[in-house]
Amino acid sequence: xxxxxxxxxxxxxxxxxxxxxxxxxxxxxxxxxxxxxxxxxxxxxxxxxxxxxxxxxxxxxxxxxxxxxxxxxxxxxxxxxxxxxxxxxxxxxxxxxxxxxxxxxxxxxxxxxxxxxxxxxxxxxxxxxxxxxxxxxxxxxxxxxxxxxxxxxxxxxx
Amino acid sequence: xxxxxxxxxxxxxxxxxxxxxxxxxxxxxxxxxxxxxxxxxxxxxxxxxxxxxxxxxxxxxxxxxxxxxxxxxxxxxxxxxxxxxxxxxxxxxxxxxxxxxxxxxxxxxxxxxxxxxxxxxxxxxxxxxxxxxxxxxxxxxxxxxxxxxxxxxxxxxxxxxxxxxxxxxxxxxxxxxxxxxxxxxxxxxxxxxxxxxxxxxxxxxxxxxxxxxxxxxxxxxxxxxxxxxxxxxxxxxxxxxxxxxxxxxxxxxxxxxxxxxxxxxxxxxxxxxxxxxxxxxxxxxxxxxxxxxxxxxxxxxxxxxxxxxxxxxxxxxxxxxxxxxxxxxxxxxxxxxxxxxxxxxxxxxxxxxxxxxxxxxxxxxxxxxxxxxxxxxxxxxxxxxxxxxxxxxxxxxxxxxxxxxxxxxxxxxxxxxxxxxxxxxxxxxxxxxxxxxxxxxxxxxxxxxxxxxxxxxxxxxxxxxxxxxxxxxxxxxxxxxxxxxxxxxxxxxxxxxxxxxxxxxxxxxxxxxxxxxxxxxxxxxxxxxxxxxxxxxxxxxxxxxxxxxxxxxxxxxxxxxxxxxxxxxxxxxxxxxxxxxxxxxxxxxxxxxxxxxxxxxxxxxxxxxxxxxxxxxxxxxxxxxxxxxxxxxxxxxxxxxxxx
Amino acid sequence: xxxxxxxxxxxxxxxxxxxxxxxxxxxxxxxxxxxxxxxxxxxxxxxxxxxxxxxxxxxxxxxxxxxxxxxxxxxxxxxxxxxxxxxxxxxxxxxxxxxxxxxxxxxxxxxxxxxxxxxxxxxxxxxxxxxxxxxxxxxxxxxxxxxxxxxxxxxxxxxxxxxxxxxxxxxxxxxxxxxxxxxxxxxxxxxxx
Lengths: 158, 644, 193
Description:
The complex is a heterotrimer. Chain A is mostly helical. Chain A has helices at 2-25, 36-46, 65-79, 84-95, 110-137, 146-157, and strands at residues 27-28, 30-31.
């Protein structure tokens, strides 16, 4: 019995090893990009930029020719050592604010950026005021005392 | 012949819709019972006529009748039959006809399932629906006639956009439209209540199942759209904050608020004005969405080809419908009674808070969507508002919303004590917090965002489970709406965890591969073993064959394709997706890079928790269906009905 | 009481914006380069004699027209430009934008001088057939100059003044109407200033 088992083990190990080795022998594919770190930064920046000729797609995902050209420009800017803001400035100087998916925070966009937050605050205050006013208009019946509450629970259990 | 028959049926339908819209309503003012009684039969007749028109258009597609301009634009003899049917709603004119068909379907359903309602109420509701139908039918007949002839007939059609040739297209728009259009029923009930001056708990109880069903369809439709984008577009994205996507999200958010507000109005008679306003808002947002997609004011991949005259018509229609509803609201709402009292902390106040947060979130999405339009209209330039904005603004708003969900289900009506709530939920809270802090270590990187997302998801999941366990132990029958509610909440938890997981832990590899090479995302590796030419019914493709290994063991094969449809110059990617319980493996074939040996660009994704997105949506849909089918809505006898 | 009118008021405001928005073209993007100096460049010309740049036209009011032989809309506007050039002394510089397209390189990537040669040949033939309104034509093969000018679609046309400042940009075809109503009056006023 032991010998049979051990020979099965041997076969199994050999099979696994072969599979692994066959699989391990396969060459690991090279990243498409020449420099993956540059590419990673490119994707991060390009995700927040708009493809100028598409129907609402980001620069990172568009297949349009202009998008390829602009990605090439951004890549070379990154390699030159420009930071994210400088890259965005480069594109905005040529294409305007339209190219930014994340609008800059400036007086023109204050309503956009602070509006929802303000609205939330107003809503919360309005809600509290409403609930208080309503309470005054019709006060809730006095809350049950502990004894009454215990009795009520007892009744409910029965 | 058949197109003309369809056209004629539409004209008749418009006339009947007008009768349905005017006479029953006039009948309630003049107390003319005969006119009121016209409501149901005219709704049925309108549905029949629109169905005939729709059948005529469908048969034109199936018969490849390219003498009909719309068919020639969107179909092709090589197009497989199922897609020929789906192509009926592949363009502007046909999708509008689908809209009207579904509106007629909802109307006739209301007519059928309203035996227990007073006739005057039915008359008002169906009249409002009839007026809306009239507007849409008039729009179709004047600017968007799907039966317009193309003479001489085209020898061959232009084909359906390859992106749309997909099972997802066959059901996504109908489901979505069922949701959009379904919101008109709650709207009609609200208008009817305002007109009659009878805004009470009974109205809320009648409205609720209709609203829940519409919400369910809308949830399903949005989820389908997301899923379809995920597997069809080739780079694994599932939400882009595109204007048209936002146009579907806004009615959904308000619809959710509406369902919960109706609950309070039904139970305690409170928030009547708020609920009515939400009902008006939900449908208004559906109409606004229609406008945004078809008028050309916003750029979007979803937008139909636009025409200024269409935009003007829809805008006028929108202004009339919503403007008159809000005017009616401003006039009648002040007379509404206050309903039961409530404490600062109570189930009502918590439900109201979430209702308000949902509305703020909707306003934020609306603001972001139309801000470029506003800036342009003011001549201040052109700017874009995209995903970075929406993600930054929307996510924080969801945090309090998701958190309050659980205390909201635990708090007592009328008056709740904080100490009671804390006592009941502290175990769940601590457990959720502990798991949220620890699990990220097992899953990969630890970050505050992940912890927050996990905490909220676990909070809802565990809180829901606790509620269910407590209730099950008590005696008494548990209604379907209980299960429905908790199932839907649980689905939300699954969705939240899914979103947190996929955003934090997904891995992408963009590589160039030749035959025999592999790319690894531990513990998986993908080896390119073959490339072959494949012929489809209306396309040619290159299909890649990948062997996938996990920890060195062979798992399965995946076959991504790059298709070239005859009718389009753009190549289409058909990604290969392997879905597991906890993750998706996603392989997308890029371009041939030439060289010897031949190399291809390949994109491989490891997307953990993606299946949870779809599971979460399906759970919410199941929950909605259960809730709507609760027996108390199906009881034939209505004790509370009084002559209106 | 008044608070119930707020939703209506907000909605009417929205409708006004939507109505105005209907008249706008969301795809037409204004250029940030207006009233800024025309970006410098030095590109090979069509006839190959010497490189050309915008400084070469300092002191004159001139137009820059972005075109390519593969651009269908350019064919539509070309006769308008030819007629304009015949009647007016305003120099029009043609910027041949990305004449060599990816499909031209499907057989294999072309070397830079081969690309330039092919681009020149194609452009010469095209201009012979459709007329040549350009005082000079420059070849922007990789599109980098186009990017500097914010080009995102062809055809596009710029009006540049004596000091080399961009004063006007048109995205899309130049129609006789546009020439008469906007471009010519602008050029006249720039010439006299």
